[in-house]
Amino acid sequence: MGRQYTKLAGALALSAASIFGQSVAQAESPVAFVTQQPANEWLARVLIGQLVQNTTGETIGNVNDLVLDHHGRISTVVIGVGGFLGMGEKNVGVSFDSLAFDVDSKGVRVITVAVSKEALMQAPAFEATEKTTFEKVKDKATDLGQRTVDEAVLLKDKAAQKIEDMRKDDTRKQ
What we know:
The chain has 174 residues and is of the alpha+beta class. It is 40% helix and 24% strand.
């Protein structure tokens, strides 16, 4: 009986995918496998780094990160504003719903938000509460590096003390 439900779920997933125009591979699973990116959707890796414009066409920043809600939907887009080549840049979080996504006459993807660059610069900074794997590894490496430096300083001090003690002993023997 469970196998019948699995086949039914697979058939329903295929039907739903065809209704929404997605390509899926059929499998003995209740999961519908998507085999190709739909033409009207963007990959997150392409979205990150994308320039953001205001409604007057002025470039006001770029997408630095995406925040997903507990349903896996994008809730917030983190835009980097100000600075130069990432130096001195400030992250500002804006609601995903406040952005417009389009393609211009040349086929270039355009992200627009109805806010001035000045307003973004005055907005409160976005604070991430979790770290990426890279950031965790970097922090650990920094900690290990600092502990290594601290240990090297202790060893240097001990060696210097030992040399000083040996010189005192040589002076006493003479």
